[in-house]
Design goal:
The structure is a single chain. The protein is built from no helices and 11 strands. The strands form 2 sheets. Strands 2, 4, 5, 6, 9, 10 and 11 form a 7-stranded mixed β-sheet that branches. Strands 1-3-8-7 form a 4-stranded antiparallel β-sheet, with no helix packed on it. It is mainly beta. The protein starts with a strand and ends with a strand. The protein has strands at 3-7, 10-12, 18-25, 34-39, 45-51, 58-60, 68-73, 78-83, 92-99, 103-106, 110-114.
Length: 116
């Protein structure tokens, strides 16, 4: 069965960095685009970034452009979100999903808290 397991969340100071990883299993990883999204308390589900199956195209939420970088390793079945220059408003549960604009599976998420 499809499994997406996120890791790497935690507490960071404003201006700091975190690297999130998503380990995928149960499907041919290289056949699918992958996505990161987030959900903060009291806020809706927010798309953050996506990457094509071969890594040839990426897309970012405007508020994270220039600060976050999505990448993937199809040999290791992983997708990574490098987050730099973190802001308190980046605090949220970050989830990894399968797909580009339409998604069929999501992981359980990893919590990111940005606070001094």
């Amino acid at each position: 069965q499809v499994q997406l397991v996120e890791s790497g969340g935690g507490l960071a100071q404003p201006g700091g960095s975190l690297t999130l990883s998503c380990a995928a299993s149960g499907f041919t990883f290289g056949d699918y685009a992958m996505t990161w999204a987030r959900q903060a308390p009291g806020k809706g589900f927010e798309w953050v970034s996506s990457i094509y199956n071969d890594g040839s195209k990426t897309a970012y939420l405007d508020s994270v452009k220039g600060r976050f970088t999505i990448s993937r390793d199809n040999a290791k079945n992983t997708v990574t979100l490098q987050m730099n220059s973190l802001k308190p408003e980046d605090s949220a549960l970050y989830l990894c999903g399968r797909g580009w604009e339409a998604y069929d599976y999501w992981g359980q998420g990893t919590q990111v808290t940005v606070s001094s």
